[in-house]
Design a protein that fits this description.
The mean pLDDT is about 95. The chain has 10 helices and 18 strands. The protein is α+β, with helices and mostly antiparallel strands. Strands 8, 13, 14, 15, 16, 17 and 18 form a 7-stranded mixed beta sheet that branches. Strands 4-3-2-1-7 form a 5-stranded mixed beta sheet, with helices on one face. Helix content is about 30%, strand content about 30%. The longest helix has 17 residues. Strand 17 and strand 18 form a beta hairpin.
Length: about 325
């Protein structure tokens, strides 16, 4: 069997560059060497290059190929593991679509929409048993009267960039006095921001993937943070958060969650592997949607690998199926 050339695309233009590199290392270690020849391609604002350990070899962006030892390397598949732009917001997906190179993530449209939290919430509105926090979307070009914001929503409030991941630029605010600094911090990350009412309850995350043609919901993870909320530090600093996989939930609640997140996956026309974050409201256990991540972290300690292992699946088999499921669908 001929091995397939896989471009493992990592890096990106955001503060999550190193997180992406760690994801790529774990994916590379868990892609079958018998089936695939993996080339890690690093993307930043200055260069796209193959990381050969010796200064790098630049990618020809005209056809996304490499010249290596006199050979022209073309790719059968792109495994995108960039968090944020340009790998999670549809830009790379559109580029690969034009070149006819298949990839592992949602398509360009879904990737772009799901990076926008307000658009995502609008599309999934009305899914049975799914709730969303009351919110306002603000644009940097407009004037912002904090008194109007304070009157429209109930404190405490979350202020977060409308586009972006890993909770960068996010704040929790308890009164009107805290709003100006929080708005400024979020606008430093994005020209659109979301102001949302705080939902008090237990926080969870669950992976959903199409495997062998079937939508598969992985075991749910509960996130218990020592911080006030699950921000960038809580996500990436050892010991700040406890992650329990599988979460301690009744079977009936797991079934309900699986039905809701499957409908989110279908409604947004997701492909490949995504991760959906949500809160179960204190007192009622109602499902409150937070966001969907279309290129979730894949380091050894990340939530999706944890959930794959908890499901009794092999990570090499899981990643292999993400590749083969797309390639076989194109035949």
């Amino acid at each position: 069997m001929k091995t397939k050339n896989i471009a493992l695309v990592a890096g990106g233009f955001t503060g999550e560059y190193e997180v992406s590199i760690n994801s790529a290392k774990n994916i590379a270690a868990n892609l079958s060497t018998a089936k695939y020849k993996v080339y890690t391609i690093l993307v930043n604002r200055d260069r796209w290059f193959y990381d050969d350990g010796d200064g790098g070899i630049d990618v020809d962006k005209n056809d996304f190929s490499l010249s290596l030892n006199g050979d022209r390397i073309k790719f059968d598949f792109a495994f995108i593991t960039i968090h944020g732009t340009p790998g999670e917001d549809g830009k790379l997906q559109g580029y690969f679509d034009m070149l006819g190179i298949p990839y592992n993530t949602c398509d360009a449209t879904t990737s772009a929409i799901t990076m926008n939290k307000a658009y995502t919430k609008a599309i999934i509105e009305g899914i049975h048993k799914l709730h969303t926090a009351r919110s306002l979307r603000l644009f940097q070009r407009d004037l912002h009267d904090v008194a109007i914001v304070a009157a429209a929503l109930k404190f405490p409030l979350f202020i977060k960039p409308n586009n972006g991941g890993s909770s960068v630029g996010m704040s929790k605010v308890y009164n009107t006095a805290g709003l100006p600094d929080a708005l400024k911090r979020a606008f430093n990350e994005d020209d659109q921001i979301l102001v949302e009412e705080f939902i008090k309850g237990r926080e969870f995350s669950v992976g959903v993937a199409r495997l062998k043609g079937k939508i598969t919901v992985l075991p749910v993870t509960e996130i218990i943070s020592t911080k006030d909320f699950f921000d960038y530090e809580a996500k990436y600093s050892p010991g700040v958060s406890e992650e329990i996989t599988p979460a301690d939930l009744p079977a009936a609640k797991n079934e309900e969650i699986a039905e809701i997140v499957t409908e989110v996956y279908l409604r947004l026309n997701c492909k490949g592997m995504v991760r959906i974050d949500f809160i179960l409201l204190e007192g009622t256990n109602d499902f409150y949607f937070i966001e969907v991540n279309t290129t979730p972290g894949q380091s050894a300690a990340s939530l999706i690998p944890q959930q794959v292992r908890a499901a009794g699946m092999d990570l090499m088999e899981f990643y292999g199926e993400l590749v083969e499921g797309v390639i076989s669908h194109l035949k």
